[in-house]
């Protein structure tokens, strides 16, 4: 029974490790995606910076280009905010799942400990009962052996008495 609970604990441990591995790999994929998105944002920002410099040098006073660049900048800032929010949400969800998994593992561990303690107390009680029964049986066997010896001695005494009475007749 104890081996079963230990096996169950190992299975739960490997399941927890598998879940952690799964969450880590999905987190790594998201980090890869976020790196790719940040690279594209950096490229766009660098393009924007280059364009702005060109516009400043070549097209000073052209309001149309200035408005377009400011719109691009606000779009980039919005994308950066969205990226930051998504990353924060991802980390929050991962932390929640890890905490949930830890609480489940702790609850299972506590339940397993209580079951092991119950089994240990039952085994101890059984050992006491078996020991007590063994002592009682030994005492009863000793008593029976003594009674058998007494009966044998009485039978021998009767046999010797009957033999003497038969010899007298």
Low-confidence stretches: none
Helix count? Answer: 2
Number of strands: 0
Largest sheet: none
The proportion of residues in beta strands is under 5%
Distance between the termini: 74 Å
CA gyration radius, whole angstroms: 45 Å
Q: Name the helicity range.
A: over 70%
How would you classify the helix and strand content by structural class?
A: mainly alpha
Structural domain tally: 1
Spell out the helices and strands N to C. HH
Q: Mean of residue pLDDT?
A: 84
Q: What characteristic shape results from the CA principal axes? A: rod-shaped
Characterise this structure:
The radius of gyration is 45 Å and the shape is rod-shaped. The protein has 169 residues and is mainly alpha-helical. Helix 1 runs antiparallel to helix 2. It has one domain.
What labels would you give this structure?
mainly alpha; 169 residues; rod-shaped; 96% helix; 2 helices
Helix-strand blueprint:
Elements: H1 2-58, H2 63-168
Helix pairs in contact: 1-2
Compact overview of the structure:
The chain is mainly α and 169 residues long. The protein has helices at 2-58, 63-168. Helix content is 96%, strand content 0%.
């Amino acid at each position: 029974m104890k081996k079963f609970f230990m096996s169950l604990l190992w299975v739960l441990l490997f399941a927890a490790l598998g879940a952690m591995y799964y969450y880590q790999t999905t987190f790594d994929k998201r980090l890869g995606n976020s790196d790719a998105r940040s690279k594209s944002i950096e490229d766009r920002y660098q393009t924007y910076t280059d364009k702005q410099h060109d516009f400043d040098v070549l097209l000073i006073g052209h309001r149309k280009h200035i408005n377009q660049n400011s719109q691009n900048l606000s779009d980039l800032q919005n994308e950066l905010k969205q990226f930051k929010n998504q990353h924060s949400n991802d980390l929050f969800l991962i932390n929640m799942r890890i905490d949930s998994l830890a609480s489940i593992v702790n609850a299972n561990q506590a339940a397993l400990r209580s079951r092991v303690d119950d089994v240990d107390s039952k085994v101890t009680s059984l050992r006491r009962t078996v020991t007590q029964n063994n002592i009682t049986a030994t005492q009863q066997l000793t008593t029976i052996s003594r009674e058998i010896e007494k009966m044998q001695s009485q039978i021998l005494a009767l046999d010797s008495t009957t033999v003497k009475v038969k010899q007298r007749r």
